[in-house]
Amino acid sequence: MTLRRGEHPDELISAAVRGDLTDDEQARLDAHLATCESCRQTLAAWTEQRRLVAGLRQAPVPRDLGPRIRTGIESGAYAVPWWRRTGLLVGIGATLATATAAVVAVAVIGDLLPRPGVASSGSPGSSASTLASATAAASIAETTTPSPSEPPFAGEATPHYYLAYTGRSDNSTLTLRDGVQGTVAQELPAASGQPIRAALSPDGRWLAYITPVGLKGTNMYWAVNVEDGSHVELGESAAIGSPFTNGLFWSPDGQYLTFTLADPEEVRKTDIWLFKAVDRTVNPLTNRGDVVAAGWRTLQSGESRAWATVATSDPTSYELPNLEDEQLPLDPADSASSAPGVFQPLWNWDGSAAIFWRGTLNPSPEAGYEFAEGGAPYLARNAGSDPSQSFDEATPLFSDLTIGRDAFSSAAITWASLNIDAYAVWDARWTGTPQSADGSPYPDQNRVYFSHLSDERNILAGHALDAGDIPEGAFVSSVAIAPMDIDYLAISIGYPSAGDLAIPEGEVLLIKRNTGDVPDQLIKTLKGTDQGWYGPGVYP
Amino acid sequence: MLAIGLRPRSPAEVAPVTERAHAEFDRIFEQYSSPIFNYVLRMVGDADRAADITQDTFIKAYRKLGSLTDEHSTKSWLYRIATNTAIDDMRRRRWVSPVGLDDEGQPERPDQGPGPEAQVMAGMLDERIQCALMQLRPNHRQCIVLSDLEDMSPQDIGEVMGLSYGAVRTLLCRARGEMRRHLAAEGLVR
Question: Which of A56, A265, A432, A457 would you call most buried, defined as having the most Cβ atoms within 10 angstroms of its Cβ?
Fold first, then answer.
């Protein structure tokens, strides 16, 4: 563990407010308080706020509550969980196939609710036995790291799904696995390489993913309906190998997916494509040849808007209008809202913050849209009402780095989904001299950097996950953050391949990020018994 | 006759629930209807929604009485049902607009009727505290309310939220930090 969030024992102070400390903890806290004015103020403030909350007045119970309950019980018309109400489950019928879909649908949507424990969301048999095509292929061999201190809520932190590319190189299969049980949830279209990137829609119904096409130098983009297994081919793209072009951006309501395709015939052209889940259509969103997709911003009205970046050497990003009202394809430069100098903003869940890039871009897709000079990610806060001002006031994401001749060429970045303020950076490619105090690589392409929006320092060297989290020789392929407050990350790692014809090997590490002197904790490894590539892991 | 006026009915009509269970439900409603309603009210910030959720909570509790084997766990069992019902409600509304940002997420105090100046002042303070609560993420809000309003121990909160003791302490610490920022913005704490 290398991260030190100061030396302030906030958890002890929090527990002390209610008198929940052991004698030993109280002694440690007292000793600290004797020398720390900041913590004394924190204790006083938290004690006062507990007094304020405890003093909230009790509201009278509505007089008709009893009769309403009586009526509800006697009529049998008790409340039905929202996810079982009419209209949410489409196509639950009498056929075996439809019944299968319904079981999967309930499992999927049920997973959006808090999971009380590892084995709480249905038995392995109940889901696997109804999947006629998948039962035989199920390979349940999740390896769990024995740990007496494993938190009981690890099931909630486990990715809802992960992909598995297994078999021999000339006879491989790609499947979608249930994250908790390890069972096969869906068979996926044949692939000739391990999944590069995957993203589950926020409503949990669609999974988008990217796989390479053997040695052809292209990538296939797919969307699969996790409820019924139907899939849509989204397109084929020249394989650029840049984190800037393999993003899969779901709208917050799960209705749209935007992504970047590079023309396989004319690699110098990239455009954004749009998948509409409601009618399963795929269409070009732009047609300029120099555009890459960015994130979706949630407006204060609750609507959301897609963003696009015109990737010239001095890039500009645009907020696109409501796509339902537009004739496609459109030119982002016609949009009323623009952000000059901003490259690929990635918005957090409520649109209040964005991580974006500044710098001089090498605008060639063949070069991976790398930054040629002064490239660095920035964090814009308080973007809710005026994004342009927040871009102007943004602070460097890596706040302890000096960006000059030495800078980033690229990095992969993700926010947590839902209402969590965490973000992570990996595959950070730094051109120049490391800037760590001890000469160790920093930024380090093999480390994952993890922080929270609430941490005003953004990222420091100490925000790297423990070096020991990633096995020797492995590389980080992708990262997903669990949508819960406790810090869990599903890190997909790969191992160098033995050769072009060998099946690649990879696995998903579920890691609990700890603070202070407590090392990070490997909760479990998601993989099967068959040799192959397991990952990425995904959350809605 | 039950406190809520539920008539004991024929076995065919209410097969899972015995007369003894009726009495037990009567006691639970008497004891917990007000705490549960107020807990939910602080969670969702709207009296009508709180009433609906409390109603659903007790109906579910009635139907699950058979699963309640330990009288000592009644409180956490009931709060857990209320919590899940409230979360369902918030999730459903989230698809319309994010929880905490929509107008419905803003606190709407139940009608307290006219009162003396002190009551008005207290009501204004309540509103500011409730406003700060509503700006918290739902699980932070839940943690603060259970700890500081309901005075539950971390172990009890863990039972309600399905979290370990350590996880509750971590979550509560973060929730206090977030709450402090919002209360400080209201000028209520430093």
Answer: A56
